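A.,

Following up on our hallway conversation. Structure tokens first:
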């Protein structure tokens, strides 16, 4: 759990004094988009492994 809190702290510090605000919003949205894509890729990989599909 401490690792997740550390990543949260790093994420918040990265945007602390960043200007202009529209760039901050874009980068935060992009970070969330990348996290969603990574989660989908991991889900697809694990689904293929569990159901026994050939690669």
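Then the amino acids I'd put at each of the 55 positions:
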């Amino acid at each position: 759990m401490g690792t997740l809190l550390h990543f949260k702290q790093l994420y918040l510090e990265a945007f602390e004094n960043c200007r202009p605000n529209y760039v901050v919003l874009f980068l935060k949205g992009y970070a969330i988009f990348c996290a969603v894509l990574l989660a989908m890729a991991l889900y697809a990989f694990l689904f293929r492994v569990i159901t026994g599909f050939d690669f």
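The chain has a mean pLDDT of 89. Curious whether your intuition agrees with the design.

B.
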